[in-house]
Please model this.
Amino acid sequence: MTLFSSVEPVRFEGPQTRNELAYRVYDKDRIVLGKRMEDWLRFAVCYWHSFNWPGMDIFGSGTLPRPWLGIPVTQAMAEQKLEAAFDFLARLGAPYFTFHDVDVMATATTPREHAANLQRIEERIAAKMASSGVKLLWGTANLFSHPRYAGGAATSPDPQVYAWAATQVRGCLETTHRLGGENYVLWGGREGYDSLLNTDLRRELDQYGRFLSMVVEHKHRIGFKGTILVEPKPFEPTKHQYDRDVAAVFAFLQRYGLAQEVKVNIEVNHATLAGLDFEHEVAAARTYGIFGSIDINRGDPRNGWDTDQFPNNAQELVPTLVQLVQDGGFTTGGFNFDAKLRRQSVEPADLYLAHIGGVDTLARALLAAADIVTDGALERLRAERYRGWDSDLGRQISAGKLSLASLSDLAVEKGFDPAPRSGRQELAESLIARHCKY
Ligand code: XUL
Ligand code: CO
Model:
């Protein structure tokens, strides 16, 4: 018996069910365009928000019953948490989970103790994974909570802090590898600055570039076949985070020769904090060839911070799901619920209700996207808009056959007078809306 045992295993019961602890749309074995729903969504429950977060905020302490939390966390507490976490994962029917090193292990004070404690819980996690069949989508090291990281981890002004970060990442990458993790994530929460006045920007970026190169070197040394992912976010906790969005990460990867080695883990609420649409970030990553995985959540449109709420608006997610369906799905990535309960959601059932709502939202968006891609009208509308590029003129420009001068000469000679044409934006928007019927 754990905190989460009071809820029966969550099953698909269809849209008519009156049971709130059932899936209405997510039917894991339902085939959508040749692939099981579970294999399209590859959803994960995150350890930190679901099992490690006690519901505190900057004005108040924890509200959620999480009896395994405390300072320090002992091995017994870490094991009690693991028991509860895997009970929840199994009852929810989650195929994957994600974790930070410090989420799962007993508190450590020295680098040696850190490695030992992680190793100790890893064996327990491995046993739980084997008996439950739950897989690891990704692991990551927490390089932002401990006071030592206040000035940054890989961008710290202190090389001993940098070495501590290396210890944590090495340990967590190796643990992720041994647990069969499909990706390894780096979110640089403290890799940025609060003031440029005390910051050597060039030095910090070079340190960070070297750190990421070491991670990639180590990945190959140990034979980890998963994907290394950087997670963009513009700010919070720092005023400016170096990995502010997909474009900034891509520029960084190119500068340090890592664009073939590292991809991105895109989070909805991070995209919106950066003033960008989530689907823009996904489109940018696909364009640059660095799309990896998704942290699914949402912000509050009237709050300017990372509220990490569970997604509940399928229509908002359809433009992203259309892209995913066009690509045939994730490769090593998945949808990780990097989302947390509100402070008043104190009952164990609330964690189930939150995830069920989120998973059904993804399933709705997937079904709508599959219909849109099958129907083809959106793709035709787009193709029609670029039709001119199939002409002789378009082909010659694309093939690089014309110089600036020859092109301008041609325009003058032919007297080009192109008339404005409809972009059909309203039609495209209506098309998305009318397919959202699940
Ligand atoms: C923080 C965030 C992290 C990363 C993992 O905003 O998204 O939880 O996903 O470190
Ligand atoms: Co995240």
